[in-house]
Specification:
81% helix; MCP_transmembrane; membrane; mainly alpha; 243 residues; transport; 8 helices; transmembrane helix; Mitochondrial carrier fold
Amino acid sequence: MSFSYHCVGQSRMYREIVEVGGTGRKKCWQIVLLLSLALLPVVLTKTIPTLRAAHEGAKTSKEVGARRKLSFHEEMIAGALARAAAQCVMYPADVLKTLAQTRRSGGSPPTLGSITKAQLLKGSLTTSVLALPAGAIQFSVFRLLKDEGRELAPPWISTASIELMAAAVAAVAACVVQTPQEVIKQRMQAGIYPSFMQGVASLLRSEGLRGFYTGFLPTVARNTPTVCISFTGFARLKEAYGD
């Protein structure tokens, strides 16, 4: 009996809510708006000091960071982690590019529906870990040559020219480590090798050590301008807009 009375009461209350006309809804919105306007000064009073303190803290940390320069080993570790993170995040897009390039010559390119999640992620962890030494070499060589070049170069050579030459050498040095990884990675993405370790064994057996550097010169020709533009462009923008 009590349950039936409760249901009747609930349904009656629901009908009363539904039967509220446009005037009632308008009054509700007016009340909400007035409450919001009333609470706005309180919110601003609490928020503005917090934002001001955060801004002052950011300025202080920026000044401290500007005075402290990363050490050689810190920059090498940061570069290695950045390279590995970038390759891990962009690995699915790299798979799509490789599949489209390899299958276009033998027929129509693959559709998104025909590519599985396993294909997009196959080998991503291994190749991302192996990107660590390439990133470490690239950033550490650039840092070393840039610092040494500034001390040894004659004054008529600009800083941008020194950074450009350092970036070019760093790109070539990184390709020595990167090219074998790229060869295995692309053949895995194309379905030639089932796994990274099996690819290493198969490539070593069929083509020898020379096979790991297939396409070394095209890789250097592709990476060197990219690294030069990235490193020097970042340095110039950093210098223009403040360290």
